[in-house]
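Quick sanity check, Protein kinase domain-containing protein:
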Amino acid sequence: MNKINLNPNRSNFSNIKAMFEGPATTNKPKVFKKDINSVTNTTQPEAKLPSPKATGPEGKKSPPAVPKKTPKTKQKYNELKQQHEANLLSKSVAPQVAALQATPERQKPPVPPKPERLTKPPVPLKKSGLSKSPASSIKPRNSEEQAKIDENDRDAKLKKILQNISARKIQEYFRKHVERVKKDTPNGYGIVSSEPYDGTKPEHKGRIYYFQINDQGILCAMYSPTEKPESPIEGAFKKVTGMDGNFVELKKVKGNSFGKEINDNGDLKDTFTVIPSIAVNGNTIIARFGGDNLFDYLQKKNFINSAHFENAVKDLTTLHKRSTYLTDIKVENFTYDGKNVNFIDVDNRVKIDPIKPKIIKPDMTAACTTTKLLRVLRPDAFDKIFSFFLTPEAAAAKKPYLKVCDEYAFLLAMIEATTRKSESRIAFNAVPIGNMDQINGMMNDKNKSYFRKWIQKHVKPEFHSNVESILRDPHEYAEKSSNPPYLSDMLLFKGSYNA
């Protein structure tokens, strides 16, 4: 079909008119019957037109016959003509005219074609976490700005390339280093150590790295911090010689060398609030940094939220189910990282293994236990000639006392850390600590009101009597209770930190 120009100065309009109203005298009409039907998609009956080969009386070709006009056919042809003109106008002329007449403010950007099918709506750029680079989002005002943008883009691409190269180099060097460490012969503690590192930063100079390979061949890396603590931290057998935000180094002060069994921490798996130490040699141990010492923190902040003890007491239950007991729980053996309290100094914990029984001599602090528990768990405190030798049956019989020993000490530390100093002093000072023969439990008739106030707030109602019995006399509670609940099941954490 030939293109039709609707310019009124051309003769196409007269041709269309001739098609519907009759033959013209000058131009040969064009047959639009098929084209009109294809545009209008109508199936109306049509009059048959004579063949174009038909000739007139003089032997010339006759113009196509036009059906006889009637009011109905004339109206129908007029409608078809108007539709045909409207379609042509909308397809060719109208968009161009509208684009020319539109002002810059009214012009709309071209609409991109819709995808065939989308299972999910497209994610906005900001919500997807991506954003345009600053250079690509700036519209340059002149060639100098464009050159600057191009330069910034090149710098960004070059920086990314260099970062990728550096990352690959680090990965390559680390893999080689791991292979070297695995091939080196470890010392008696299963540790491979490096030479003192001569780093460029002051905190790196003199740092010694230690690498431990466990039974699964997994490499554990640690180092000795060169930074010293702000104030001396020293216990009865060891002291802190270096500390930073990652690790703590402790040296032996007196006593025997650190035993190799310190590095046997399989019983602590998945207990993230229990921070063990790794003996790198007979005189040095390295531990993960767990935060501020809770005792020092309480001197500044008075008390903390009880919800921060929740994960710790759950881990304590996990250890008890594995027949592992810490035995020396106290405020000084906790750290606080702002989210959780963590157990530290757990190297001398008691692990009861019925298959491999061993001598059990737990570390205990007199102020955090009772006289009766000491007589059961540490009889040498009263009889210096007592020899620690336990049969498997005797070791298993101590489990109830070891369990309640941990729970009693945990309760005392939690009460002290979650109670204002004035109230905790009144409660704790009501019990004379000097004479060990008089310690049955921290709670008594003189201070029971303070402890009951805390119990009502932090213990589930159905376990009030259990916790009160533990605080009054944990030894008696262990003897009279059959299958007692775990402390983590009895405590109530309102507004739990983990919720």
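Posting the structure with no commentary besides this: Confidence is low (pLDDT under 50) at residues 1-11, 24-54, 100-107, 125-133.
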